[in-house]
Amino acid sequence: MTERQILMKKLSTYAFAADDLHLFLDTHPNDRETAAKLVRYKEKLRPLVEEYESKFGPLTADEKNGNRWGWIQSPWPWEIEEGK
């Protein structure tokens, strides 16, 4: 497994957990323990996103660093050669 794949697996794990907790809070808005857990997962997710984007480019088409089209300047997933 490449470094990119390992990082993406970690990232997707925390993102899934955060999304799942967020959905739970939609039906249980007063659950403070779950709300605190959501904050912790988002705090763990943030540095993983930053690390991934610094090494491999943006994950989304959101405007980053004032460059709306920065996400298309990176190679597309099928253009990346494994092991490099």
From TrEMBL:
Q: Which UniProt keywords apply?
A: Capsid protein, Virion
InterPro entries, alphabetically?
A: CotJB_dom
Q: Which domain of life is it from?
A: Bacteria
Protein CotJB domain residues are: 7-79
Q: Write the protein's name.
A: Spore coat protein CotJB
